[in-house]
């Protein structure tokens, strides 16, 4: 088969001779290259189709190569050259003689087409700045499969096209290989393409940049009834004054608490302080491509679920975890109702720690989603006739969403929306004036609606949303802390006669009232005072850190407990934080100081 083929003519001799071509010694190598190239083209075309239609697209700046365009071009070019290679192979195998004048016209056309395809791929890569774009995107953005698979497909198609060029130029070389040999060569090309595809998919897996561990499911312990003895002490290392170090957050979640920083989440057990799970992002080439957006963590279902937002040059990404186990429940890359609903419209996710519904508000609607699955539960329009949205912060309890509207120019309207069904439970109107603007504050599972003005310090304390319309207005005192079940309240009062402020412990209906000795009213958002099941505790920090404790049923005399901590004067934000199984004293030292640590002491 490797010998020179000579055509034997039985008809009349033509005026010009028809020449036969010598296949030569290199014919088998050309045929082998063409067979391997066909395998590469098959794999490259398949990888290009997968990259274009089977991977999630990621938006990048127009100055960078668009991975979707590259993948589509590779798939089309690969399919075209593969069709030429297959046709050339069977055309060459079917010949009895390789005639120059008879066959060369087809070969020139096939060769020119393959060369044009290679030129197109090269020009596209140049115009798209593909090499530099690939390097930059791999450094500055989280890894994504469409980039690596599109480049892999382009490389396979380009190399495969080069390998089939000799076959296209001289199709007769296909006769030099036996069927078994050609099949093995194609299989080799497919195997190489498969390896490249696996490497490309693996290289685009962003999990390479993530250190993620999980924990076994376990029951969430109850909250501490009282401030006990020291159970554990953690000192997390400093962030070394890194530019992206914006401070760490400590929030109750799961079986204890979460420490969230620029690099990710760390979960700790509330009873022992032992680590449970973590989700940390590693820098890529020394650069943090995706950074936790400080203050974005929202807990739901009594701390069993936590959702977080991350930002980078690629935009924002939301990741939601089971706070007990650390398992990822869903992300913004998943196809869910949460991610598909008005992705470009301004929306805000509200804090709703006691509800198992994620609450999102826009200017015209409030929406509820299952926190665990991101499935839409309900949508409630709130743009009532003659009313408009306001910038008053919306608050969410376990039972209701409380939102403030401005109706006309003379009325504030507070509406309550059921967190389970989205139905409007009730509303309450209050006269508006230039000097009053309501504020909404959560006190455990109650909502403090304050209409304070210098002349009329009125407020409502709503315990049940269906009683919003009938909840009495109060004008005496200012509540700032409450027990978890709402049975006891701390109310700050001002005595005009002595011009002194004091604090009373009262029931919700005000039928019982007891003076709390040596306590001053506090900001309800400071977290410095808490009402536990058995006692009242308050954290004080002047020249030294100490905790004052009052028995809940007889708060006539406080017991001061010194706290040994590394809180730095004028550089620290000490916090008292009840979490499952314990109460934390958190020393958040100013992280602009290079050696500042985060100190957490657990008492139970």
Protein traits:
alpha+beta; Methylamine Dehydrogenase, Chain H; five-stranded antiparallel β-sheet; about 30% strand; transmembrane; Quinoprotein_ADH-like_sf; membrane; transmembrane helix
Q: What does the model show?
A:
With 604 residues, the protein is an alpha+beta fold. It contains 7 helices and 34 strands. Strand 30 (545-551) and strand 31 (559-562) form a beta hairpin. The longest helix has 28 residues, at 100-127. The radius of gyration is 36 Å and the shape is elongated. 40% of the residues are buried. Residues 1-18 have a biased composition (Polar residues). Residues 1-20 are annotated as: Disordered. InterPro entries: Quinoprotein_ADH-like_sf. Keywords: Membrane, Transmembrane, Transmembrane helix.
- Give the overall silhouette: elongated
Q: Tell me the span between the first and last alpha carbons.
A: 89 Å
Instruction: Compute the number of structural domains.
Output: 2
What top-tier CATH class of the largest domain fits best? Mainly Beta
> Which percent range fits the helix content?
10-25%
Classify the fold: give the CATH topology of the largest domain.
Methylamine Dehydrogenase, Chain H
| Beta-strand proportion | 25-35%
What's the CATH superfamily of the largest domain, by name? YVTN repeat-like/Quinoprotein amine dehydrogenase
Please give the CATH architecture of the largest domain.
7 Propeller
Tell me, rounded to a whole number, the average pLDDT.
Answer: 86
User: Got a strand count?
Assistant: 34
